Structure prediction request, 379 residues.
Amino acid sequence: MTLSSLQKTANDPRYAPGLVFAVFFVIPLSFALYTNHAWEDWYITFRASKNLALGNGLVFQPGERLHTFTSPLGTLIPALLAWITGGQADDLVLWLFRLFNCMLLGSTGVLTWHIGRSIHRHHFATFILLLYLAIDPKLIDNSINGMETAMMAFFLTLTIYALVVKQGTAQLITLTMALAGVMWTRPDGFVYVSGLLLGVLIWPNRHRADWFRLLVKAGMLAVLLYLPWLIWATWYYGTPIPNTVLAKSMGSARSAIDVLQSVLLFPVNTFRGQGKMHLIFTPTYLEFGGWPFFLYTISKILTTLAIFYWLVPKATGWGKILSLSAFISVLYLSTINYPYPWYIPMGTFFCIYALSMLLDQLLTWVRANALLNTSVRSL
Prediction:
């Protein structure tokens, strides 16, 4: 099957959803079968999950109520799997969790296909968006090594899907579930969705008041869905802030002034080639060597285009919204002293969305000029 025929099949509504799901499911599963990679944080988190399944409480060490994990869902779902399997088959739980995440990535692909058909004027832009997300090495690896990356990708995609595709009551319900899911996945999830929610208010495609009412309702309902975890964690651990967050900030804590300075200087540092832009479109741990230097340059160029596309006056509405989301995500990653590998895919996620919108606009411009030249020659 040629690339053109594959692209044509991927655009056919009869076959596309199933094909996209299969591709997004099989690639990470194949990677897991080949590498059997499990991140060290998986074992730290799973120890708390297993203790819960065995009736010892959601703790790393029975009797010591320490909040030793970051993602509630990334801990509770393995705990459920451990309980179902009897708490004695650790490797089986990891593989079941991998299968669960592969299914989430498959669903992410299907939602992305629907989103692309709504925001792109050219199928090729949707095809490139799907292709990159399907083969992004950091997204794949951190979805099968025990981290919560697949869940974040799914709920962020569901947020975009709710804003772009859904309408009426279905939009409110879908957006509420997406926002709550983001927060249940990572406590810093609100940062990644902030660009989307802010963007639809700045560049609305319908009455701004309608968007505002929708976001307020969905936000309040999402808070209500997340509130039980905050209340329980505060009662059980004494604080809703994970010890993982506190531990990572030790020795590298930054004052409010330092963070503000990073934010204000972000555009300047971007053009100087500083910050975390070299991480967005490169393999994990590129800085350890073994990769060609030009990958740094390519990543910086692509990331710069993605995060500043929203400043282009003729950029489309969704192009600006997704680019602003990329800007905020990369800015957030740049304020972290050392963003861990499973943090980076969220920046890449929004950057590839923004670049797909830029590609779509370029294709429209090329086609318009080609038609114009044809018309001129025919006169």
Summary: The CA atoms of residues 163 and 246 lie 34 Å apart.
